[in-house]
């Protein structure tokens, strides 16, 4: 049974200034998602599921899905703010999506294998997908056997502005103990700072593992996550900004003994397009890798 790749592509890309998931940055107009799907297929993933928004579904099907039909099985699911558990209604004043945890739960009806979760606008690298696929292939029929591909924080920053990162703590056997979401992460004069979930700014270790939202799960995570989202809504239903993140699910399952999360090392260097100013750098790196023969051109 081959693992599934879940791609979170519902974000609006507000800081970037458009639907960056559809932006062509490769030598022949490939998107970052194209490279992720290409690397995943080579690593042994059998299906890719995209979480999108309904308002750009047609454009997404025409520009994205059509390219993958001969490479890998593709399904689409939609994340909308009013897709809530029974008994809850959307506050009409809310504008923010419910977060990555909610987006992941949208795929529950179409995934029954061990699966990976990634962002649509991050480049993770072929070896990252390979170590992830190798781990997931061994977890068929298991429960609570999760993983995360870790990147060093100082290699995940943008020169163009602040970013959000999950800062991870691990034990001596390289299992995750906690991950805390930090916002406004930036480097200034050699010091990296970020704002934690308590709202306080703190100095961060550049050699700490950062979660770039490259996770591996067994399907039981849907069962746990859906109940946690119900509990989250009971406390935060009328909070217009609170979000339900994947790290919340991960931390809770670790702390309650429902899961173990192996941190996998990857030699690949992450890069992405958080801001429009990041685009030339991404274009240059993809061209270089193509010139070195790491990727064909065109990719498909």
Description:
With 300 residues, this protein is an alpha/beta fold. The chain has one domain (4-291): Alpha-Beta Complex (Spore Coat Polysaccharide Biosynthesis Protein SpsA, Chain A), CATH 3.90.550.10. 27% of the residues lie in helices and 26% in strands. The protein contains 7 helices and 13 strands. The chain has helices at 32-43, 57-68, 100-105, 126-137, 220-236, 246-255, 279-291; strands at 4-8, 47-52, 73-78, 115-119, 122-123, 145-152, 163-170, 176-188, 191-195, 201-204, 209-217, 260-265, 271-272. Helix 2 (57-68) links the parallel strand 2 (47-52) and strand 3. The longest helix has 17 residues, at 220-236. The two termini are 25 Å apart. Residues 12-17 have low confidence and may be disordered.
The residue ranges in which pLDDT falls below 50 over 5 or more consecutive positions are 12-17
Order of helices and strands: EHEHEHEEHEEEEEEHHEEH
CATH architecture: Alpha-Beta Complex
How large a portion of the residues is in β-strands, by DSSP E? 25-35%
CATH C-level class: Alpha Beta
The major β-sheet equals:
11 strands, mixed
Question: What number of structural domains do the residues give?
Answer: 1
Radius of gyration: 18 Å
Distance between the termini: 25 Å
Instruction: Find the structural class using helix and strand composition.
Output: alpha/beta
Query: Could you give me the name of the CATH homologous superfamily?
Result: Spore Coat Polysaccharide Biosynthesis Protein SpsA, Chain A
* Number of beta-strand segments: 13
Q: Portion of residues in helices?
A: 25-40%
What fold name goes in the CATH topology slot?
A: Spore Coat Polysaccharide Biosynthesis Protein SpsA, Chain A
């Amino acid at each position: 049974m081959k693992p599934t790749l879940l791609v979170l592509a519902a974000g609006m890309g507000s800081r970037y200034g458009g639907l960056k998931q559809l932006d062509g940055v490769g030598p022949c107009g490939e998107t970052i998602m194209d490279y992720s799907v290409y690397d995943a297929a080579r690593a042994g993933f059998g299906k890719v599921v995209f979480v999108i928004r309904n308002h750009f579904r047609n454009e997404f099907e025409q520009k994205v899905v059509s390219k993958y039909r001969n490479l890998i099985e593709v399904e689409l699911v939609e994340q909308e703010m009013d897709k809530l558990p029974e008994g809850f209604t959307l506050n009409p004043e809310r504008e923010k999506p419910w977060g990555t945890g909610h987006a992941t739960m949208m795929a529950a009806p179409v995934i029954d294998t061990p699966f990976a979760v990634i962002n649509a606008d991050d480049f993770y690298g072929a070896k990252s997908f390979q170590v992830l696929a190798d781990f997931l292939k061994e977890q068929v029929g298991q429960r609570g056997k999760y993983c995360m591909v870790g990147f060093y924080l100082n290699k995940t920053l943008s020169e163009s502005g602040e970013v959000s990162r999950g800062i991870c703590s691990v034990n001596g056997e390289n299992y995750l103990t906690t991950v805390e979401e930090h916002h406004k992460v930036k480097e200034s004069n050699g010091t990296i700072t970020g704002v934690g979930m308590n709202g306080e700014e703190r100095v961060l270790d550049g050699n700490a593992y950062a979660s770039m939202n490259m996770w591996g799960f067994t399907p039981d995570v849907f069962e746990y996550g859906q109940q946690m989202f119900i509990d989250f809504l009971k406390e935060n239903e009328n909070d217009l900004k609170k979000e339900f993140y994947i790290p919340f699910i991960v931390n809770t399952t670790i702390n309650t003994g429902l899961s173990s999360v192996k941190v996998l090392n990857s030699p690949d260097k992450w890069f992405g397009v958080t801001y429009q100013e990041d685009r030339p750098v991404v274009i240059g790196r993809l061209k270089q890798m193509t010139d070195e023969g790491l990727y064909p051109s065109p990719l498909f």
